[in-house]
């Protein structure tokens, strides 16, 4: 069995002579949860539209389960949630879901069960016009879960959701991939998905600038780890003298260190024993990593232009 | 395939019921047709034709104005609206094809129109029958009016789908739909009338004018319905024309069908080029 669910090979897409996507190559395996990150206009939505067969790449090719995007085979096993979808306000959640189930040739009654999974069992009989933003988004996700899609594409599914709804949303994503579906979701909300994805793709100006697990990206970025040490009584200056680092207020010191020095530095701190009241370890966040990679791409870009 | 067409059609019909489009159309159609039946059937006594038949004659002229308007207003949102709401992306990421989608929309909208016409005009027919003006041929006239109105509606629905597939903004599509109504229903007839007055005996009147009527589904509709009524001679207006036509009246009906078919195919071709 071929394990590749989605394959992009040197994909380039040009709009009016401007490259929206260029040199994009990656593969998604089955049951992977992958985040596609990029700021607005980085080419994420363009890539989704190409994967669905709505746009044809100028160069290169995309394969969905070994088939052409937009072909019957590809469409039968792909589910999609667009960035901003507004279902008919006058219809109920149940009616909307039944409609899409029938379009996909799936059992409409079974699809109703999905409302429960996304927490809309109660609201299913109400009109979509009365739903909150989070509820509409969950209805959209329920729509994407109809049948047994092998590839689920979610375009900025969590934009505008409150933290609790977002948590629930990722719980569902984990459940979907647990059932064997590959999930590719795009976002520019970065920190929220640290533990929620197996792999991260970062796009910047249409180019793929990173493709790895978060841990590997962290290591590759070589971003410093920040240790914040708080003394019991001693003034911060004294602490800074003994440990290195810079005082941030009268009793705390901030130490920046490389990943591989982390343990040694912490050992140095703990050796001071009773002097220390507390220690905080701040790993670089996804925001930091993301910023690092997209800025690196910018630098390479401007270097290429000169 | 039929399952998917039926699904779209059902959904359109449900939306029509839910957003009160059908209700509004029924109210407008029945109000106008009742008014015409009550005021306009007065000459029936003196002309010795049934009140129903003479009402149908007036209602054909009403249909020419209202049915295309209702159809265009139903249709302009069909593609542009789904693009704006983002739902077209969803629909076409399912196994549905472009032609299935548009045919489903058309079936649903025609059902909306048929229901509105049947309730709107039917209530007038019932009122006439209840007040002693009913007869079998009158009911047949009403049935023909409703049926041909639906076909006329189909022609204008297809025009609406064309504008809806041409532009991505709903508001632009709406403006274009109103423009089409103005040109084909109002200005077209005025232009023909002007040309006819300018050249009442010559080449235009004899060779161009009849085909110009045939080419516009609204005029073809009026032509067919009036010539199909027994009371043709007494109704006047188009009656003289119908008799001096170089083709049988059924050609007018065929022309509406042909127009609708061509416009619908055009709309499907345009939709195939739309990137949702």
Automatic annotation (TrEMBL), chain A:
Origin superkingdom: Bacteria
Keyword Manganese tagged: no
Record GO terms (molecular function): ATP binding
SMART domains associated with the record: AAA (SM00382)
Location of the ABC transporter domain: 6-230
Pfam family, one: ABC_tran
InterPro entries: AAA+_ATPase (IPR003593), ABC_transporter-like_ATP-bd (IPR003439), ABC_transporter-like_CS (IPR017871), ABC_Transporter_VariousFunc (IPR051782), P-loop_NTPase (IPR027417)
Record flagged with keyword Transport: yes
Gene3D superfamilies: P-loop containing nucleotide triphosphate hydrolases
Alphabetic keyword roster: ATP-binding, Nucleotide-binding, Transport
Record-linked SUPFAM superfamilies: P-loop containing nucleoside triphosphate hydrolases
PANTHER family referenced in this protein's UniProt entry, alphabetically: ABC TRANSPORTER ATP-BINDING PROTEIN ALBC-RELATED
Similarity-based family: Belongs to the ABC transporter superfamily.
The name this protein goes by in its record: Cu-processing system ATP-binding protein
Naturally occurring in which organism (per UniProt): Pseudovibrio ascidiaceicola
UniProtKB/TrEMBL annotation, chain B:
Residues annotated as transmembrane: 21-42, 62-80, 101-122, 142-163, 175-198, 250-271
Keywords, comma-separated and alphabetical: Membrane, Transmembrane, Transmembrane helix
UniProt KW Transmembrane keyword: yes
One Pfam family matching this protein: ABC2_membrane_2
Cross-referenced PANTHER family: ABC TRANSPORTER PERMEASE, ABC TRANSPORTER PERMEASE PROTEIN NOSY-RELATED
Stated name of the protein: Cu-processing system permease protein
Organism encoding this protein: Pseudovibrio ascidiaceicola
């Amino acid at each position: 069995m071929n394990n590749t669910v989605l394959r992009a090979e040197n994909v380039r897409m040009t709009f009016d002579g401007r490259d929206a996507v260029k040199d994009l190559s990656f593969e998604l395996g089955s049951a992977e949860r992958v985040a596609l990150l990029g700021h607005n206009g980085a080419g994420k939505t363009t890539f989704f539209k190409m994967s669905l067969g709505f746009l044809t790449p100028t160069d290169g090719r995309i394969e969905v389960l070994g088939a052409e995007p937009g072909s019957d085979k590809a469409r039968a096993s792909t589910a999609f949630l667009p960035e901003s979808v507004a279902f008919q306000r006058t219809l109920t959640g149940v009616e909307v879901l039944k409609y899409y189930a029938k379009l996909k040739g799936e059992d409409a009654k079974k699809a109703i069960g999905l409302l429960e999974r996304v927490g809309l069992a109660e609201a299913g009989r109400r009109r979509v016009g009365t739903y909150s933003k989070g509820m509409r988004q969950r209805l959209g996700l329920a729509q994407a879960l109809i049948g047994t899609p092998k590839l689920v594409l979610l375009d900025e599914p969590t934009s505008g959701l409150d933290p609790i709804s977002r948590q629930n949303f990722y719980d569902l994503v984990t459940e979907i991939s647990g059932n064997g579906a590959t999930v590719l979701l795009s976002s520019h909300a970065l920190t929220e998905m640290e533990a929620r994805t197996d792999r991260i793709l970062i796009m910047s100006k249409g180019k793929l600038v990173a493709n790895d697990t978060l841990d590997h990206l962290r290591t590759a970025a070589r971003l410093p780890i920040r240790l914040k040490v708080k003394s019991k009584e001693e003034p911060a200056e004294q602490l800074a003298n003994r440990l290195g680092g810079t005082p941030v207020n009268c009793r705390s010191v901030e130490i920046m260190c490389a990943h591989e020095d982390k343990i040694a530095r912490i050992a140095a701190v703990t050796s001071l024993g009773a002097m220390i009241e507390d220690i905080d370890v701040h790993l670089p966040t996804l925001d930091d990593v993301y910023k690092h990679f997209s800025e690196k791409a910018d630098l390479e870009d401007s270097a290429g232009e000169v | 395939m039929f399952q998917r067409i039926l699904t779209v059609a059902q959904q359109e019909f449900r939306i029509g019921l839910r957003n009160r489009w059908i209700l509004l159309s029924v109210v407008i159609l029945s109000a106008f047709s009742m008014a015409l039946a009550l005021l306009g059937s007065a000459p029936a006594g003196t002309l010795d034709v049934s009140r129903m038949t003479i009402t149908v004659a007036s209602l054909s002229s009403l249909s020419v104005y209202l049915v295309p308007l209702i159809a265009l207003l139903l249709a302009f949102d069909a593609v542009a609206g789904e693009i704006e709401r983002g739902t077209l992306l969803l629909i076409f990421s399912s196994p549905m094809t472009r032609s299935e989608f548009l045919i489903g929309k058309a079936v649903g909208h025609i059902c909306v129109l048929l229901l509105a016409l049947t309730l709107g005009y039917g209530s007038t027919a019932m009122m006439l029958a209840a007040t002693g003006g009913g007869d079998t041929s009158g009911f047949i006239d009403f049935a023909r009016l409703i049926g041909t109105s639906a076909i006329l509606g189909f022609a204008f629905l297809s025009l609406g789908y064309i504008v809806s597939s041409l532009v991505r903004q709903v508001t632009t599509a709406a403006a274009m739909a109103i423009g089409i109504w103005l040109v084909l229903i109002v200005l077209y007839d005025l232009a023909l009338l002007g040309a006819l007055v300018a050249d009442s005996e010559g080449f235009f009147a004899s060779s161009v004018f009849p085909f110009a009527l045939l080419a516009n589904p609204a005029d073809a509709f009026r032509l067919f319905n009036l010539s199909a009524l027994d009371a043709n001679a007494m109704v006047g207006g188009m009656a003289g024309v119908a008799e001096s036509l170089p083709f049988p009246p059924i050609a007018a009906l065929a022309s509406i069908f042909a127009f609708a078919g061509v416009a619908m195919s055009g709309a499907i071709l345009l939709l195939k080029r739309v990137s949702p």
